[in-house]
Amino acid sequence: MVLSNRLTYWYLQNKRDLPWRKTHEPYQIWLSEIMLQQTRIEQGLPYYNKFISAYPSVFDLADAPADEVMKLWQGLGYYSRARNLHETAKYVAYKLNGKFPSDYKGLLKLKGVGNYTASAIASFCYNEPVAVVDGNVYRVLSRIFGMDIPINSTKGNKEFKELAQELLDKKDPATHNQAMMEFGALHCKPQNPLCASCPFNDKCLALKENRINELPVKLKKARVKKRYFNYLVFDLDNDGTILEQRSGKGIWNGLYQFPLVESAKLINASELQKMDSFREIVNNDNYSIELFNEDPVVHKLSHQHLYTRFWLVNSKEVNAETISLQTVLDYPVPVLIGNFLNEYLPDDYK
Question: Is the dihedral of CA 139, 140, 146, 147 positive or negative?
Fold first, then answer.
């Protein structure tokens, strides 16, 4: 309880004023937790406000068209979260009459809700004594207790969860969990933590043993894969272009993109035009092609880096359905393409 008391005192003096901390309604808290997975609060807060404004209730979100939800999410990344968010909203609205499950085990059954999110909602909304363990909590516990077991290992996950549960203030788990995460985000930061003013500097083994920068320990990730994307940006005589919706289990499922030709390396125009995937779309010789960006845009994802070039193709006809170029911004697209459109489109199209 000493740790929890110090933590709570620190939290009450330093906590940020965030909208989802002013409610116990599961819809708002669920929405915030899904958005903040792998996302900093500074980045996620504007999106949270936009979603709450557009969809004040779970019924509003459930009734929204999928493309509209994805468009509002655009730029936040990890788009599977948005798809799961929408599916769960429909399930809660239509199958559960708008009522979220009221305990940890029930919440775990919702699509896109894992141990961390279920613990957060259960403790914040229903005061259920389940400990939240996220990246901030791993860091705080590993440093204070000098734990060097990898946090992304099965054994590490189990041991940290057990320790967090043991330390939890069972009478007020909501405040304790919020305090633990906030302390990791603001004070016990990954780089340059504020050790001199830390309420645990008399207890912290990492500080005592000069191991702050060594903890927490993570197993090395798999090697990052390089991929080479060539987007075909068509400018047809009728002010038309082509957008395709991505499908399957790969990245950006459900978002729209220009026709994509993926290559094994950076290629020139001659090599691009010989590829079957190019000829399937441009099935005539009455066209011109020009490279928009000589230096590829490098878009970094967790396990892959995308080296991307945009090719401007002017053609009278193509073997695909077309849309008006002026409507492109109405479609949800990956941030990579969104950035290109901001540079490429005339101002009167925006």
Answer: negative
In order of 88, 239, 258, the CA distances from 250 in angstroms are 21, 31, 16
Residues known to be catalytic: 33
Is residue 245 within 8 Å of residue 256, measured between CB atoms? yes
Q: What digits encode the pLDDT tens for the residues 178-207?
A: 999 999 999 999 999 999 999 999 999 999
- Please state the pTM of the whole predicted model: 0.82
Copy the structure tokens of residue 124.
């914040």
pLDDT band at 279 (very low <50, low <70, confident <90, very high): confident
Provide the 10 A C-beta neighbour count for residue 98.
Answer: 14
pLDDT at residue 73 is higher than 80: yes
Q: What tokens appear for 219 in the block?
A: 């197993």
pLDDT over 70 at 115, yes or no: yes
CA dihedral 96, 101, 105, 108 (to 10 degrees): 70
| pLDDT band for position 281 (cuts 50, 70, 90) | confident
Domains and their CATH numbers in the chain: 2-214 (1.10.340.30), 225-349 (3.90.79.10)
